[in-house]
Amino acid sequence: MAAKVRVTFLGTSSAAPTRDRGLPAIVVRREGHVILMDCGEGVQRQILEESVGLGKDLTVLVTHLHGDHVSGLLGLLQTMSMAGRKKPVDMVAPAKLLKWLDVTSDLLNVGLTFPIRFVPARPGVVLRYRDFRIRAARATHSVDAFSYVVEEGPRSGVFHPDRARALRVPEGKLWSTLQKGRSVKVGDRRVSPSEVTGPRRRGVKIGYSGDTRPSPSLVRFFRGCDLLIFDSTFRASDAAKAKERKHSTSVEAAAVAKRAKVRKLALTHFSARYVETGPLVREARKVFPETVAAFDGLTLEVSPSPG
Ligand SMILES: [Zn+2]
Hints:
CATH topology of the largest domain: Metallo-beta-lactamase, Chain A
Number of strands: 16
Strand order of the largest sheet: 6-5-4-3-2-1-16
Order of helices and strands: EEEHEHHEHEEEEHHEEHEHEHHEHEE
Bound molecules: zinc ion
Low-confidence stretches: none
CATH superfamily of the largest domain: Ribonuclease Z/Hydroxyacylglutathione hydrolase-like
Strand content: 25-35%
Radius of gyration: 21 Å
Structural class: alpha/beta
Shape: globular
CATH class of the largest domain: Alpha Beta
Mean pLDDT: 93
Number of helices: 11
């Protein structure tokens, strides 16, 4: 089954918003499951604008505890409570986030109508779902910071209707059972999915750096991503500032993408000092041609690599 994975950029600025760019937040949508990566102030309007829908299975991944990445969280939780959400929310973040949530929701009398299943961020697999998992790695920033990958398990192979017909499997329910990877009974014989589908395919892998300097360990962590979203706060001529503030330039992001052999790079977290991102993306493309500059509202569809 070819589940679509869509990545939408809700906020693509860095520490301060601009007229066109909100604070960091990215949403990954996969078969009714929403994964929100960082949650800057203003995220709720963007969630409405992009019709994300908050009644779904929801996982929140927070890279680090800087205001621009978390300040939208309390309001978001409050709105979901007002809507009477009952489903738990899964959350991965540096452990201290819970303290902030406890103190602020207590002071502001925010009573949540749903449980938060909190996982303190640490390197390795932090969450497992039926068809995908989430891994974390340490990033290099001015505070404790993490990068994440959302990684599907292997996808089933392409279904061949001609083979199913040749084996006299009636179209309909039995076909969908086979497509889901389970065998079916036709007359007195069992037909297994491998008889009617091609080889299993690699699932989709999406990486998000959060705020970080480039590092060899992140190159390993992001290896083979179909889409890598990377800190691109500065342009190459401001490399000294990137180093000092523990961020990356667009060219450094491109170098990580190239070394990690990813398929596509999306630059984000742009400093408010740049009116245009054109120069940043042009510099990056010299190193890694498959580069785009994210903007608020950009949606990228990610499909598994054909190979
Ligand atoms: Zn930031």
